[in-house]
Amino acid sequence: MDVSGDQAMSSLWYVLALILVGSALLARRAPMAGLLRMALFWVVIFAVLLMLFKLGERSGLFSAQMQREGASSSQQSESPTPASVPTAQVEGQALRIPMAPDGHFWVEGTVNGTPTRFLIDSGASITALSVQSARNAGLNFDLNAPGVSMMTANGRIAVQRASVSTLAIGPIRASDIDIVVSPTFGEVNVIGMNMLSRLDSWGVQNGEMVLTP
User: Fold this and answer.
1) Is there a contact between 95 and 184 (Cβ–Cβ < 8 Å)?
2) What average pLDDT does this structure show over 168-190?
3) Is the dihedral angle over the CA atoms 97, 103, 107, 108 positive or is it negative?
4) What is the b/e burial string over 172-205, where b = at least 16 CB atoms within 10 angstroms of the residue's CB?
5) Predicted local confidence at residue 147, as pLDDT
6) 3-state secondary structure of 21
7) Following DSSP, what letter does each residue of 57-112 receive, concatenated?
8) How far is Cα 182 from Cα 160, in angstroms, rounded to an integer?
């Protein structure tokens, strides 16, 4: 904070102190000697509080706390995938996926045999993988190569195309699935309509996503 900011803060504290003290004194209508002692007492209290506030500010206590809170918020926004998801249940040939606490449908699956967590998104036209998940699955792609433009809910982004040999969630298996890869996806992997359209049926029933191959 600059000098003018310090002066403004000090002035504000003193004005508030005078208003509070004056209001208290007028309300009590105490003798003059008592009024002076009480006024001095409150002025000292406000002066000590102001000094402590300035010391904390100059030592970086408040800014450090705000930085920690900002870092925590940033980490949460960069990692939207929940730490754990409800377990999907196989019922006959169908896979029933409970709704997660965040209101989405997440499911554990595999890509080329590699464990991968997916978000089921009927609004996505194509299945998408994070860069890390694509690398873990051994997919062949080059982020430095010219990509293709794709429109998403967050605007137009550049993606790399690739193909998955096998994608599985529960009893559901699919081969030769086209996917897209982009750092923009963060840690989220999405099963889109090019996978869902291969199913016999899919939809939400009683708070569960039901997929039938």
Assistant:
1) no
2) 94
3) negative
4) bebeebebbbbebbeebbbbbeebbeebeebeee
5) 83
6) helix
7) HHTTHHHHHHHHHHHHHHHHHH--S-S--PPPEEETTEEEEEPPTTSS-EEEEEET
8) 6
**Which of 149, 111, 148, 109 has its CA nearest to residue 133?**
111
Largest CA distance in the chain: 92
Q: Running DSSP on this structure, what letter comes out for residue 189? A: -
Rounded Cα distance between 123 and 112, Å, is 24
Could you tell me the two tokens for 136? Answer: 């873990």
**Is the C-alpha dihedral spanning 21, 22, 26, 32 positive or negative?**
positive
Cα separation, 121 vs 37, in Å, equals 70
For residue range 89-128, what is the model confidence (pLDDT) as tens digits?
A: 999 989 999 999 999 999 999 999 999 999 999 999 999 9
For 68, the token pair is 């920690």
Q: Is the pLDDT of residue 57 over 60?
A: no
Q: What number of residues does the chain have?
A: 213
Task: List domains and CATH numbers for the chain.
Answer: 3-78 (no CATH), 89-212 (2.40.70.10)
pLDDT at 31 exceeding the cut of 80 = no
| 55 vs 203 pLDDT, higher one | 203
Q: How far, in whole angstroms, is CA 163 from its chain's centroid?
A: 29
